């Protein structure tokens, strides 16, 4: 494949082909001239002569152009051939069809046994399926101009690269890749490269010498599977069963490199430890007392400056669940059931988790431990995120369930309090006590609302809002909350688009943030509330949340307070987490704000620097349908004045105290009330076809059949009956089911006597 032999042959073939085609054209011109001689008329003769002359001139011009093209192509290819000929890496100059135009001396020396006119033929004995690999790389080079790929061969790693300098010309380079384990001056370690399915892709020479040849899969090499990093395993070596200490390193693309280390002789002296100094695996030698006796460079880089000789292992890392000293003692005594533990390093600059595997050896008759370390920070971070999400979900479910039960209790308490208030006027000595009971029941209902807000199960009443108007209405109350030492400053974007949210809940979020900012500045300061309308042109990724592209109204609440430490910053939205002293806070404020914001479809983030201040940022999506009719302000309407008591009510409630209050309240208004403690009992009552029922008042969540299910069944025979659903859960939890039931309304618990009777009256009229 010499440079001077291959290059002219290809161009000669091209030139000969062109000459053959031009020769055909000249033959046609000659035929036209002969036909012209035989033509009977002079005009026809001249026509044939002209055509023949034109073809002859065209043929000569084309022949000249071909000659110029061949010369230029030859010069270009000669330049490229001279360029690659000076390259020490095997290089080829080839056409699009893979035909080799030229090759350098390194390529001719490396692939002389595979002499071929095509690149696929030259690489046929080096890589498997060379045609597919070359086609894939050439296709990428056609679009990007360059492509390369690392391949595992029988003799090691190679990197195949291709450049496209011309329209139909490609420069290929086949370069050996030096394995990382052979790049240091220390001893070359036995190393095998393993793929996804435990197939051995590559073995270096020390590994081949250890095993006694090429092995294709792990199960043929290791006597027990699976192979665990940091453990001593038995392999089938050239001299029989051999023990090795396995260390695993990620090699990318689903591959891993397994280093087969010596398991440690019966005695490991300090001078022998120097052999391990440059190994690409963090190693520690730990004495029976837990003191570090030796370590290598990789261990020092992983653990940090605190790693020194005679430092106790517990001073470097802390156990997750049990004492490190107990673990060391059990391992030395041979009683440890688990030799691998995940531990947290005591580094002050960053959080690092390590997987530590202990191996017991003997040194001069005394037991010693060799610890193999690997960085497990990413794994533990993912695990912590998963556990946190599971914990928050569980707390949310618990909060929703507790809120439901409390709402039933509060309904009974406040309801019976209303019944007592009907029999006492303001001059009665018991009237003030009843008012206190009623007010505290309402406060308890507000606390339950916070629990529902955290679990995102409270009922929202969204409306179209202008953030400037909302803050303007709230400014007076906020100024009273911050006190005299703190200054409240509001800054608005001049063009602020509308959003959709529950105004009452949004005000609660803002008040919680302002109160926290005030408490962070005991000596006074400034709280800044800034609104801005922004457009995200790219998704915003932070705190494991992605804010999609679009328009948002942002609200920034900033203070100059003491700040939040970084280790507590990720916990501020957790329920019952607070840095305040006992009695100063419940720890539900920020978790409530978080739940409201998330249920609204918005986002909340926090940034803080200790000693500088804290900044909360809220992103509210801009209302898309801006031309929709604005929500009218709530106008206090007169309660229904029609007469009560002209209807039959079927009351279905599984909680006896709530059912007792509701039935008494409705009977006091003159209604006829039929009671049922379950959905099945209600359907049994309705089997009487002569019974006339005007309204169903039913709980939503009950043992057995739930409220919407039995109502749908009952409406098949009584389609005109109206329905009032009551529940301690949010309306959203069964909103779809309610929407499918005609003439139905929702009444959340806890409700008062007037709330219940007025709702029933409105349904009847």
From TrEMBL:
Sequence ranges assigned to domain Response regulatory in this UniProt record: 648-764
UniProt GO MF annotations: phosphorelay sensor kinase activity
InterPro entries reported for this sequence: CheY-like_superfamily, HATPase_C_sf, HATPase_dom, His_kinase_dom, HisK_dim/P_dom, HisK_dim/P_sf, Sig_transdc_His_kin-like_C, Sig_transdc_resp-reg_receiver
SUPFAM superfamilies given in the database record: ATPase domain of HSP90 chaperone/DNA topoisomerase II/histidine kinase, CheY-like, Homodimeric domain of signal transducing histidine kinase
The entry's keywords: Kinase, Membrane, Phosphoprotein, Transferase, Transmembrane, Transmembrane helix
Catalytic reaction annotation: ATP + protein L-histidine = ADP + protein N-phospho-L-histidine
Annotated transmembrane regions: 20-39, 48-70
EC number(s) from the headed UniProt entry: 2.7.13.3
Domain Histidine kinase: 401-624
4-aspartylphosphate modifications at: 699
Signal sequence bounds: none
Pfam family, one: HATPase_c
Name the record gives this protein: histidine kinase
Organism: Roseobacter litoralis (strain ATCC 49566 / DSM 6996 / JCM 21268 / NBRC 15278 / OCh 149)
């Amino acid at each position: 494949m010499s440079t001077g032999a291959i290059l002219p042959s290809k161009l000669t073939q091209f030139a000969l082909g062109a000459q053959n085609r031009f020769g055909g054209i000249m033959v046609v011109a000659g035929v036209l001239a002969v036909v012209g001689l035989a033509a009977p008329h002079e005009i026809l003769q001249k026509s044939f002569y002209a055509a023949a002359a034109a073809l002859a001139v065209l043929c000569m011009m084309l022949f000249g152009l071909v000659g110029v093209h061949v010369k230029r192509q030859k010069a270009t290819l000669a330049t490229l051939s001279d360029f690659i000929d000076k390259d020490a890496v095997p290089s080829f100059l080839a056409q699009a069809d893979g035909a080799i135009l030229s090759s350098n001396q390194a390529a001719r020396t490396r692939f002389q046994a595979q002499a071929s006119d095509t690149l696929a033929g030259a690489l046929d004995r080096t890589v498997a399926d060379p045609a597919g690999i070359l086609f894939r790389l050439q296709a990428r080079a056609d679009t990007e101009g360059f492509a390369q790929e690392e391949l595992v061969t029988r003799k090691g790693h190679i990197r195949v690269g291709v450049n496209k300098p011309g329209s139909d010309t490609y420069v290929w380079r086949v370069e050996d890749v030096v394995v990382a384990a052979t790049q240091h001056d220390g001893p070359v370690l036995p190393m095998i490269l393993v793929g996804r399915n435990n197939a051995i892709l590559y073995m270096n020479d020390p590994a081949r010498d250890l095993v006694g040849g090429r092995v294709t899969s792990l199960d043929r090499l290791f006597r027990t599977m699976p192979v665990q990093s940091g453990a001593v395993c038995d392999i089938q070596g050239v001299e029989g069963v051999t023990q090795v200490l396995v260390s695993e390193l990620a090699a990318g693309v689903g591959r891993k490199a397994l280093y087969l280390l010596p398991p440690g002789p019966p005695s490991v002296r300090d001078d022998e430890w120097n052999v391990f100094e440059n190994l690409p695996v963090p190693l520690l030698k730990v004495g029976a007392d837990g003191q570090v006796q030796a370590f290598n460079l990789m261990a020092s880089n992983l653990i940090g400056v605190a790693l020194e000789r005679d430092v106790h292992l517990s001073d470097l890392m802390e156990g997750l669940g049990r004492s490190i000293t107990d673990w060391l003692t059990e391992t030395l005594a041979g009683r440890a059931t688990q030799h691998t533990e995940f531990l947290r390093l005591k580094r002050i600059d960053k959080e690092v988790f390590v997987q530590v595997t202990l191996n017991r050896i003997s040194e001069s008759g005394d037991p010693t431990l060799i610890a193999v370390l690997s960085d497990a920070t990413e794994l533990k971070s993912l695990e912590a995120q998963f556990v946190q999400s599971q914990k928050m979900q569980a707390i949310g479910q618990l909060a929703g369930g507790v809120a439901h039960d409390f709402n039933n209790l509060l309904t009974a308490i406040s309801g019976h309090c209303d019944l007592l208030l009907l029999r006492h006027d303001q001059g009665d000595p018991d009237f003030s006590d009843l008012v206190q009971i009623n007010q505290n029941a309402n406060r308890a209902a507000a606390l339950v609302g916070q629990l529902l807000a955290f679990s995102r199960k409270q009922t929202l009443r969204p409306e179209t809002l202008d953030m400037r108007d909302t803050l303007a209405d709230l400014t007076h109350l906020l100024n009273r909350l911050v006190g005299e030492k703190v200054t409240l400053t509001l800054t608005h974007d001049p063009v602020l688009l509308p959003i959709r949210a529950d105004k009452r809940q949004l005000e609660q979020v803002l008040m919680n943030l302002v109160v926290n900012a005030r408490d962070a500045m005991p000596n006074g300061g400034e709280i800044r509330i800034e609104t801005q309308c922004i457009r995200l042109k790219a998704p915003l990724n932070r705190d494991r949340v992605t804010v999609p592209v679009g328009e948002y109204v942002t609200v920034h609440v900033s203070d100059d307070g003491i700040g939040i430490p970084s280790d507590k910053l990720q916990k501020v939205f957790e329920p019952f987490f607070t840095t305040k002293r006992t009695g100063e806070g419940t720890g539900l404020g920020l978790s409530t704000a978080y739940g409201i914001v998330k249920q609204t479809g918005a986002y909340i983030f926090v940034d803080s620097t200790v000693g500088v201040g804290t900044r909360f940022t809220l992103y509210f999506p801009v209302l898309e349908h801006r031309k929709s009719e604005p929500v009218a302000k709530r106008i206090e309407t007169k309660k229904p004045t029609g007469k009560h008591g002209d209807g039959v009510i079927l009351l279905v409630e599984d909680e006896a105290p709530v059912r007792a209050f509701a039935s008494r309240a409705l009977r006091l208004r003159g209604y006829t009330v039929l009671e049922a403690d379950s959905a099945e009992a209600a359907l049994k009552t309705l089997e009487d076809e002569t019974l006339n029922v005007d309204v169903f008042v039913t709980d939503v969540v009950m043992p057995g059949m739930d409220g919407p299910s039995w109502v749908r069944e009952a409406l098949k025979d009584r389609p005109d009956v109206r329905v009032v659903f009551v529940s301690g859960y949010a309306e959203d939890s069964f909103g779809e089911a309610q929407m499918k039931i005609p003439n139905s309304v929702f009444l959340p618990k806890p409700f008062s006597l007037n709330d219940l009777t007025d709702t029933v009256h409105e349904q009847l009229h």
